[in-house]
């Protein structure tokens, strides 16, 4: 029963954090929202201390978490003459805090209960809460759109696999801060894939000006430093 209540709690938090993320993406620019999400690793460390799950986190964790947040911000910072939506930014911060809280709670709950039950109830709760959102879709929900939905299906499979792997790392091995610092390396991979596949799929990032490229390379370097620190 305890696993059910705790799984229900983290499932509800994750669902509303995900909703905030979707609204932020609708109201603002994806690159800005993604960059703000880099602060998630900081929120994980912060909640671990505030909830007294950890009383003395190693200093290198705080340094790595800070570097990860700065790095992702540099990687996704917009070009000049762009005015971001403050509502979108606020929702992105709320999303980051919600995800950080979930990652701080899951290993603590998993430590004193059945890990599989906890994660199952969490994921099931998110699925059930998603059903009432279907009527708010702009277009027909069950209509198959060959070009868009084909890529959406593949993307969903990859995201689901990533979620399972992250949940196992956080719930079974109790390393939420380290996992989120490593997860922040998605900014580095986005640069690699933009350069590699950019011209083939028509990404504008592949032809970014020197200032943007320099800033992103510097951000990626900070991220690598943070990962090296935590790996040590």
Short description:
By secondary structure, the protein is an all-alpha fold. It is 77% helix and 0% strand. The protein has one domain (2-135, 158-231).
Decide which structural class fits the backbone. Answer: mainly alpha
Q: Number of helix segments?
A: 10
Compressed to H and E, one letter per element, the order equals: HHHHHHHHHH
Q: Overall pLDDT, averaged?
A: 78
Q: Which residues sit in consecutive blocks of at least 5 with pLDDT less than 50?
A: none
The level of helicity is: over 70%
Beta strands, count: 0
Distance from N terminus to C terminus (CA atoms, Å) equals: 39 Å
Beta content comes to under 5%
Radius of gyration: 18 Å
Count of distinct structural domains = 1
Tell me the overall shape: globular
Largest sheet: none
Short descriptors:
232 residues; mainly alpha; 10 helices; globular
Task: Set down the secondary structure blueprint.
Blueprint: H1 2-27, H2 30-36, H3 40-50, H4 59-76, H5 86-111, H6 115-130, H7 146-173, H8 176-183, H9 186-201, H10 210-231
